[in-house]
Amino acid sequence: MSTDCPILVWMLSLNREYTREEYNACHKVVDDCVQHIKIPYDPPNADSFRQVMTHMLPLLMMRHRRIPRAKWRDCITPNGKHWIEQTPDDMPPEKFLHSMIGYHLAYETSLCGMAMTQGVQRKVVNIGLGIKHVATEPRGVGVKAYTESMAHKLTPTELTLLAPELGDEVALRRLCTILALKQAYIHAIGQPPGFDWARLEFDVPGETARGDGHPLQGWEFRIFRASLGVARNLAPAGAPERRDVLVEEQYQCVCAFFRGTKESTFVWHETAKDLESWVQFINIDQMVKVIPKLTA
Questions:
Q1: Is the pLDDT of residue 2 over 50?
Q2: What pLDDT is attached to residue 164?
Q3: CATH code for 7-294?
Q4: Which of 64, 160, 249, 258 has the smallest count of CB within 10 Å of its CB?
Q5: Is pTM, for the whole model, over 0.85?
Q6: Which tens digits make up the pLDDT trace of 231-286?
């Protein structure tokens, strides 16, 4: 893999339910420090909490780089791609040129993520993250019915890769991988929500990608999994006591980045050791603990 524009990914596990106090503290940080986003105050809304936590990730990343909040600003391209520009101060012009940090945020169910890279602005903005919970929707629906509900996002070739004879587990994993690949690519090129996913075709076993029938050239697709243990309250609504049970959730994740090479590459990261050099996992407790430092 290229050493130009190294990629780092932060994954935040929403591994338990949150308190109103935690929501308030996190919402205030985003309200004070993330000027380009306004998240309506809605403590009971789990999706609001996901948004708040996801938008805290760039603050955490810059804190880890020991760059004070006053020393950087969030910038955005006309098609909605974000990058962070640091204050030049005593930085030589050449170093400043290569100090831009492009990033993309995504979340689904219990997993929030940020993919980022550093280099010149025109390169670093071409990054996207796709996260797909490996589960059928709505819960309890069979894999075949779920695949049919997603058929409008797939090509005929992709549907043949999801043949029922493969078994539910393989078919669901492949479907989620294809959807995460498409999501990551669409995010990387800055397309709006209404983009027709069927214009893209990913042959996962063959490791090829096409857009409008033409090969997608120059892309790096990093494909990896995330397994989370999430505490879920299974007590009936209105029950006086909680009944927390640890539930395992699987996610298929993809980071897409345009490197401008002749071919597109698919890089599979199958083990924890494969990920440790470029993917960092944290949870709610760790994020809440650093709140006082994020505004400094």
A1: no
A2: 86
A3: 3.90.470.20
A4: 160
A5: yes
A6: 877 767 666 777 788 899 999 999 999 999 999 999 999 888 889 999 999 999 99
Secondary structure, 3-state, the chain: CCCCCCEEEEEEECCCCCCHHHHHHHHHHHHHHCCCCCCCCCCCCHHHHHHHHHHHHHHHHHHHCCCCHHHEEEEECCCCCEEEEECCCCCCHHHHHCCEEEEEEEEECCEEEEEEEEECHHHHCCEEEEEEECCCCCCCCCHHHHHHHCHHHCCHHHHHCCCHHHCHHHHHHHHHHHHHHHHHHHHHCCCCCCCCHHHEEEECCCCEEEECCEECCCEEEEEEEEEEEEEEECCCCCCCCCCEEEEEEEEEEEEEEECCCCCCEEEEECCHHHHCCCEEEEEHHHHHHCHHHHCC
